[in-house]
Amino acid sequence: MQFNYFPLLCAGIVEKTNYLKMASTVSGSTAFTTQVDPDTGTFQRRLGDVSTFFYDSEEGKILGKTFQQWIFGAMFYMAFYACIVFFMLACGAVVYQTLNWNMPRLQGQDSLLQQNPSLGFRPVPSVDMTLIRFIKADPTSYSPLTDNLEAYLQFYENQNQVTDTGVMVDCKTYNKRRPQTEWDKACRYELNNLGPDCIKQQAFGMDDGMPCILLKLNRVFDWHPEDYHNETEIPAEILDTYEPYNVHLKCFGVTPADQDNIGDFEYHPPQGFHFKYFPFRNQQGYRSPLVFVRFMNPAPNILIMVECRAYAKNIRRNSVERAGVVKFELLVD
Which domains does the chain have, with CATH numbers? Predict the structure, then answer.
């Protein structure tokens, strides 16, 4: 026998409907409820709330805190920041004790240069380019270049090579290394070593289309150049011009086309950087040794890529890493 639930379901629905009608009937009429927004307050009440927030006269609060709470909060933050300042000063004092103002903390292979100096050049047209370009016999085109060279060489004038004690070594008589007892004194550098042609009175050769480019070794603390012990160690590029006790220089065109267009060179002084100017130990009045490379007949109106290399037994040369080398471009219009 199958039981039928449908009549029971219909009866339940009817009963529930009657109950809802009775609940919504008030005094014989049906009341419909609606949702009313909560009271948001008047403008005066809001203004009063804001005023009470800034100063509550009943509880004695300012900006929601009592006077004692403000005192304790200020003391806490004063102590907190005082501890931070003290900690920073303590760390700075510890670091300060590890520094030496006369020598770097990291030396030798631990330094960034790793006892392998690179070359620098002047004039530098700008910090973001290495192109040296000018128009022959046009002072307006090369005056920024000559001014850059003149400003750099001004530090090598005799009146500017001074120390607090006035002690500098005259190295004219040395043709080998200086004795170790003089390593902590600066060796005076004479601008006469740079030759009679590369001077500001002749616009450093740019007026004649034979520019003089200044090269120098970057300073590496306590670095000593090493000489080649025998002829088999001397690179073939400098074998014909090699002289002991000198860091030699050699410039050439990067590509075969550059080598055809670059022309001949003159080096002043021809031997390069003499060993007597090393080591660099942050001596007062120290000036790095210089070499002028004069381009005798570069091809006009052609961009020439130039690479110059320094040669000593303990100088590693790598064109990609710019170790022991320097690259720049030359364009004479």
Answer: 40-99 (no CATH), 113-332 (2.60.40.1660)
